[in-house]
Amino acid sequence: MPLPKAELHLHVEGTLEPELAFELAARNGVKLPYADTDELREAYRFQDLQSFLDLYYELMAVLRTERDFEDLANAYLARAAAQGVRHAEIFFDPQAHTSRGVEMGTVVEGLWRSLGRSVENHGVSTRLIMCFLRDRSAESAMRTLEDARPHLGRIVGVGLDSAEVGHPPVKFREVYEAAAALGLRRVAHAGEEGPPEYIGQALDVLGVERVDHGLRCVEDPALVERLVRERVPLTLCPLSNVRLRTVDTLAAHPLPAMLDAGLMCTVNSDDPAYFGGYAGDNFDAVRTTLGLSEERLRELARNSFLASFLEDDEELRQR
Ligand code: ES4
Ligand code: ZN
């Protein structure tokens, strides 16, 4: 039995496996610039975050209807459940769809057709987090927040993702203020490729409750001390870091040192179809390659529930 865990850093578009991509392409009459799934998998050799994002956005062209988003989420939830995920807080990127003519309602209602029945069908509770693409303008993010208003009953919070360097959190100050005023929870990617200062900004300017990645905090001892003191959860994604060359090798990943320093770490999959594994695969990898003890693995699993947006009573039932 895999360890029960919550997944807190998961882009639903990043769960699009090559087989499903081709199936949806055929269903929707979309032509992909790859002959078959093998040739597509060949393209999964990334130099950095941007080279991954180029492919990630390209493949989204196959996602067009509510049923596509429903199928995508169902495929993820089935795989996650098999690896011990009991709760998933799922990111989606509305601008990546609305900008190619797929409406916000299609995305949210399509995902909801799956998420609304996930507890019964997969034994996985879920939350939906809408991310703004930080390499687009703050105005575009604000329009996206407005667009989401009819759907806010289905959305627990906002996040910030895509190309990080040159797009500091402070760019989205007003958007996050507006999100907070609407009662939305706040998270943001920071310190994946961007500098440690972005992590402090995400906390101070955007008011985030968790930091997605946060890996580069290790370069700033004062920041580490603060994150420990304030028990700020970090949603780490070890296999993602290896594939995007944020770390040289998995063996060199700072996770053990971060746990030793007292940071509240969690382990997640990010974009599992692209980075070689789902949540359980990430746990297995850090157990095997980093030699984490069973006690450390249980700590990571416990942290994932504590750092989730589950209510206290739900949280205790799950872990
Ligand atoms: C992402 Cl790994 C990563 N980083 C930033 N933005 C993203 N969107 C999807 N995956
Ligand atoms: Zn991410």
UniProtKB/TrEMBL annotation:
Q: Give the note describing cofactor binding and stoichiometry.
A: Binds 1 zinc ion per subunit.
Q: What does this protein do?
A: Catalyzes the hydrolytic deamination of adenine to hypoxanthine. Plays an important role in the purine salvage pathway and in nitrogen catabolism.
Protein name according to UniProt: Adenine deaminase
Location of site Important for catalytic activity?
A: 213
Q: Which family does it belong to?
A: Belongs to the metallo-dependent hydrolases superfamily. Adenosine and AMP deaminases family. Adenine deaminase type 2 subfamily.
Pfam families, per database record: A_deaminase
- Where does the Adenosine deaminase domain start and stop, copy by copy? 4-316
Name the reaction it catalyses: adenine + H2O + H(+) = hypoxanthine + NH4(+)
Q: What class of enzyme is it?
A: hydrolase
GO-annotated molecular function: adenine deaminase activity; zinc ion binding
Q: Name any cofactors this protein relies on.
A: Zn(2+)
Provide the E.C. number(s) assigned to this enzyme. Answer: 3.5.4.2
Active site, renumbered: 192
Binding positions (substrate): 271
Annotated keywords: Hydrolase, Metal-binding, Nucleotide metabolism, Zinc
Query: What organism is listed for this UniProt entry?
Result: Streptomyces naganishii JCM 4654
